[in-house]
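Kindly inspect both lines:
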Amino acid sequence: MIGRISGRLDWRGPDHVLIDVRGVGYIVHVSERTLAGMPAAGEAISLYTELLVREDLLQLFGFPTMLEKEWHKLLMTVQGVGAKAAMAILGTLGAEGVGRAITLGDARAVQAAPGVGPKLAQRVILELKAKAPGVMAAGAGLAAKAGAEDVVIEESAPAPAWKPAKVDEGAARRASASADALSALVNLGYGQSDAAQAVATVMGGEPDLEAAGLIRAALKLLAPK
């Protein structure tokens, strides 16, 4: 299993890239969101990958974080959601957006992805709503980007200048706050599903809250009316 690809970005296509790893070129399929955040051709790149194996086809799908990779795997467990549909959902909503949409039962947000109709969007919500809190709780440890600092580019000619991939500190901080808040609410006795829905609701309106503020706001939503 190929779990990560690190090398030089040789070429960018509409939905895939070619990454040179010590003279071997790998075609990796990525979402529009991931493609937009990539460096220029010739620079170092590192992606977490998932290998899709079929009888007549081998395809690599790439993700900037393990969190997106885990969401992609979970989305593909839904009947009718293939690898490309899962990438379309992630490309439209991002990892955090997918978690929030599923937790809140927002089928319209999922339906906004290209090629995803209302029935399929509703199925995604129904089948994954109970599983979403688990991914959200693990989000803090999965949100860091695959680093390119250790990439070695070997060429006969001088290698182009490159910059290491930057960690998305904002995404990592939000995932950490979300995970901490969810854990605290569950420890207080709230059900994981209810706690996750409250956290997702608060983050939808105030995504930059720290864990303490997130917990306070979620508790207000969970308080008996």
User: Anything to note?
Assistant: Confidence is low (pLDDT under 50) at residues 156-167. The domain at 4-63 is CATH 2.40.50.140 (OB fold (Dihydrolipoamide Acetyltransferase, E2P)). The longest strand covers residues 44-54.
